[in-house]
Request: fold
Amino acid sequence: MLNSMERVEPKRIKILISQLQGFKNPKLQLEQYETDGESVGFFLQRAWKDLVSATVVDLGCGTGNLTFASVLAGARLAVGVDIDREALKIAIENKEFLINSGFDVVSANFVCADVENVFFKRKFDVCIMNPPFGIQKRKADRIFLTKAFEVADVVWTFLSYGSKPFVQKFAEENSFSITDFFTTKIQIHQKFSFHRKKVEFLQVDLYRIQRIW
Reply:
């Protein structure tokens, strides 16, 4: 078994994440979509240095894709937080799958809690997240960003395409600043009745936001 501090190459992590279980009964109000392997790979190529040996919190972790990716990349601890017990049950099953496949992801842990109200006794080095974009629940993205700014000094987050003016203003209001900005596409599988295609690609923005000292 690989030691939890041994880093797995991003290409291999991308493949592993693609093999994990996704949402069985996704909840539209929570905007539950998996962060697909390609998107995880895109994220890792840019966030790698921040993740190695870091303590990480994944807000709105769902079935755990970003949580596991951070541990496989060398994070010494990753805590995934989600309000949905069903999603976290799948995350635990994914953890067992990775361990049985020879990957030490015991430092990936999960907490069932409302992100807005969750309290941590410690701060984390990095917050990572692919949160609700505020499509179903207005300002849901603000709730997640507010908590991210509270619990970590560095934040990596996917957000809706074209959101940079809002993110920049909101970050500055909370003594943070965008240091890196990228655009990519997330793969969306047919989950809900309004989906017309088996697979669609949603353009999104990826941000690195850091506290202003």
